[in-house]
Amino acid sequence: MQKKELIKKLEQLKIPVDSIITVISVKFEEKLRSFEDMTNKLNEKQLMEVYLSYKYAGKVTINLCYVSGLKDVPLSTAIQKIENIYKKMINSGDVKKLVLLETEIIKRCGFLHFRNDTPTVTILNEEKNILEEYIMPDFITIVIAEKSPVVQIRTTHPNSLNQSFKILGYFATDKQSMDLNFSFHSFRSNLMAIFKKITSISMEKSPQPRRVSRIRFSDEEDIRKTKEYKEQKEEGAIETFIYAHYHGEDVIRLQINFQSNKLIFSRFTSEELIKEILTKIMEVAEGAKLFNGKRVLQDFLSNS
Question: What local confidence, expressed as pLDDT, does residue 84 receive?
């Protein structure tokens, strides 16, 4: 790909360069101050690396699920099978208005990128004084790793998530999959320990009726050190949602919903940093024996 074409593709990603320029500067050992600076000083190979780092990443919502049938399947075979299943489901009408735009392998991960034309929005046409419905396409990226049963579904729309589960359901051994169950106590507590700072948290108290409380502080404070948080824990409250800072190669700010196995990256984040935090999460999951049970996929779908 020519440098001119690469620059155009980078522009189309609408990357907020101000928020990532430090990371890129450190990575390539260049003092970069702007998008123009980056495109002038970096060569084609380096720009391609930047492009692939953010093509499917950025400010993404990642829904994690466990598909046992992917555990020992080579990456290229898994992608081909998912493509074949998608075509079969489109022809049968099991999934609708779902368009497969692209599939590719980047750094030992498979990316299947879809457009979902189902979501709509209703807007008032003031001239005609009527409500009109418009399609608001949602984009889905299913990410699979070599011989790994843990699958990422990157989308924010419930319909897109459900359609993705349907496709992956054909890949589950004996139609079984497993909710990663982020609310599992040992997993939740061990996961929270990897974060240097937690600045916002939602907690739930049992027994019913359910009581949900939210504790929020500035970025300078860690909620776990506060009197209010300690009192909530003593009263038996459990964490359902956190806004956390992870300090690795760079500071990663993300939200974790323990009830829906969902990660929300609040700032533009590269594939490398997403992989870093997911690797940590999988290490905690293995330690908490999160993969020791199974759950029927249809149950998973009905609760999504």
Answer: 94
